[in-house]
């Protein structure tokens, strides 16, 4: 991985600080940890960009201690040859079967999209958390999105006059069943996140009265009891059928949900300053860590290039709060930011681990 030819690290529990000058390879080490847990990069969807320039391939081996014991996880990738996965030395049948869901939570500068980005970015951040905490949620969400794609394809054919609308109800029934399950999962997760988010937002200096809420689509589902969601969603799809045929796409449903993030009366998504949005994103991340710890296992927390953007007081609050339990890896160009906090220091320079 750029800029590394080879690196071998043993990271202890507690607070670990990876320090070194800009361009030394700190972010690439964070990226390798995420890749070894989830099989994807936290900064790009283009796998070829991860491979070191001039190299034919990359390979990450990660020994991970979890609730099921120690597992050796391996991932390799070569352009034009694709991805290879092994778990304890044996080939994995698929990325979904190999992925260690909930093993890691990561904050990189781009993670601000989970607050100030488009609704899809906030949905994805919430869904990733629920997938790790709630068995079966990932499959229900995938099934809903598949049924959505099938209905959209049919809407296009109906508008083009290639078929009639008579087959739409069958797809809508499947969407309503799975969409209700997705909507219920989001409701439960956000209800559980409200208190820790507000607590961490205040602890990190973001102010009192932090609020989270699901902005549901269609809006009338907000008042529908969970047990009645499937029927209400089916009715909503049927009532909008003519308009959605004209648009050739499904305009309402859980795929259009959003996550409201507020501090007091301020909608942090739209009106928060860069600092307020960063603090909200961190509060949401740490609240998610609590959520996973209570329902699955405490994830590794990775904080890349976040300390330089915080004033000294907020920085100390953050590190004292997150470093007490579990494993936390932070990167910084300045090792002084973790002085007095008992952090294990790893110094990197020019793609090598310094002595």
Characterize the structure shown.
This protein is α/β, with parallel strands linked by helices and 355 residues long. It is built from eleven helices and 13 strands. The strands form three sheets. A six-stranded mixed sheet has the order 6-10-11-1-12-13, sandwiched between helices. Helix 6 packs across helix 7 and helix 6 packs across helix 10 (274-295). The radius of gyration is 22 Å and the shape is globular.
Using brief descriptors, characterize the structure shown.
globular, about 350 residues, 6-stranded mixed sheet, 11 helices, alpha/beta, about 20% strand, single chain, about 40% helix, 4-stranded antiparallel sheet, 13 strands
Could you give a quick summary of the protein structure above?
The protein has 355 residues and is α/β, with parallel strands linked by helices.
Q: What is the strand and helix layout of this fold?
A:
Layout (H helix, E strand, L loop, with lengths): L13 E6 L6 H13 L19 E9 L2 E10 L3 E6 L2 E2 L3 H4 L5 E4 L5 H4 L2 H15 L3 H23 L8 H36 L6 E6 L13 H11 L1 H7 L10 E6 L2 E2 H4 L2 H22 L4 E4 L8 H11 L4 E6 L11 E6 L2 E2 L2
Parallel strand pairs: 1-11, 1-12, 6-10, 10-11
Antiparallel strand pairs: 2-3, 3-4, 4-5, 7-8, 8-9, 12-13
Shape by Cα distribution: globular
Main beta-sheet annotation: 6 strands, mixed
Task: Determine the structural class based on helices, strands and strand pairing.
Answer: alpha/beta
Helix content: 40-55%
What sequence of helices (H) and strands (E) makes up the elements?
EHEEEEHEHHHHEHHEEHHEHEEE
Give the C-alpha Rg: 22 Å
Would you tell me the overall average pLDDT?
A: 91
- What is the tally of beta strands? 13
Low-pLDDT segments, ≥5 res: none
- Report strand %: 15-25%
Number of helices: 11
Cα(first) to Cα(last) distance is 21 Å
* Strand adjacency order, main sheet: 6-10-11-1-12-13
